[in-house]
Amino acid sequence: MANLLNVKHHHVVFTLPKPLRHIRNRNSKIILDLLFNASAQALKEWFLKRHNIIPGIVSILHTAGSDLKDHPHIHMIVTAGGLSNEDFSVAKLNSEFLTRQRFLANKFKTIFSKSLLDLYNLKKLNLHKSKIEDPIKFKQFINNIKQKQWIVSIQKPLEDLNQIVGYVGRYTKRTCISEYKISSIKGQFISFQFNDYKNTPRGQKPIVATKTMHYVQFLDQLLFHVPDKSFRMVRYFGAYNSNYKKYLPLNEAKIQFEKTHTDESFWSDFAAVRLLDIQNGKPDPLLCPQCKTYLNDHEVFFPFKTFINDS
Fold first, then answer.
1. N or C terminus: which one in the chain shows less Cβ crowding within 10 Å?
2. Average pLDDT by consecutive 10-residue portion of the chain (311 residues)?
3. Half-sphere exposure of residue 147, counting CA atoms within 13 Å on the CB side?
4. Structure pTM?
5. DSSP code per residue over 39-99
6. Which string of b and e fits 223-254 if b means at least 16 CB within 10 Å?
7. Could you write out the DSSP letters of every residue in 100-124?
């Protein structure tokens, strides 16, 4: 809340086309990094060329559909405006319309396809014993997917900052299936509910369907969507990248944050967590494990949060 620009925000979704998912399965981190970067680059280039603006972008990765199938896609909140590329002042777009979905999808497709070909030429893709390992077949494959229509969805902007954070907050760091979706476990089979978008008429509320799987298949699909250690599922681009943080003006949320989050409040938070850890049997962080004496507390330091440098 404290780091958002006080402007409208659009919800934009970029989907990795189905023909590329077998490459992603062999090269997960490389392809998902490319999905993050290519989608953000498409928007940043369009904003810069059309409005001379640096947009603020928060990107959240999901790899599963509601039925646990492989479905990598990026949820974004994108400022309807941003920082002026000339003096970093806040600029707002007046229109409710951002741009054409098909135009943005084609731009995303061009950037992604070129980057994928570059990765192949640099021998960074693992395609051993695949049907497209040969250079000629890989280029044919790239040309074929470029002929298809890629999917990008742009929704009308949300105006209220609380609404934006609440809306996007539901997409961050969530598991691919909620526990309440599991309707029954009988013997070796697990049944769960999912939104059946494929059979839902356009514009209507999703039909809720039930899927039953053997527990081995269920756990296999579930664990497939657990991210690798240290992989960043939420990333910040453009005006929301740390490079531009100093140019973001104070908003009401940031003013209230700075008033309430003092050194004393941080220490109070730490003291509460310390007590809870001790009650749960964890070692006291202020007790030296070697000499068994208590450390003198002066200040609380929290781990540094890293950001992607996309400048």
1. C
2. 86 94 94 97 96 95 90 93 93 91 96 96 94 94 95 88 76 81 95 91 89 96 90 93 84 61 63 84 87 78 52 43
3. 6
4. 0.80
5. HHHHHHHHHHHHH-EE-EEEEEEEEE-TTS-EEEEEEEEEESEEEETTT--EEE---S---
6. eebeeeeeeebebbbbbbbebbeeebeebebb
7. -HHHHHHHHHHHHHHHHHHHHHTT-
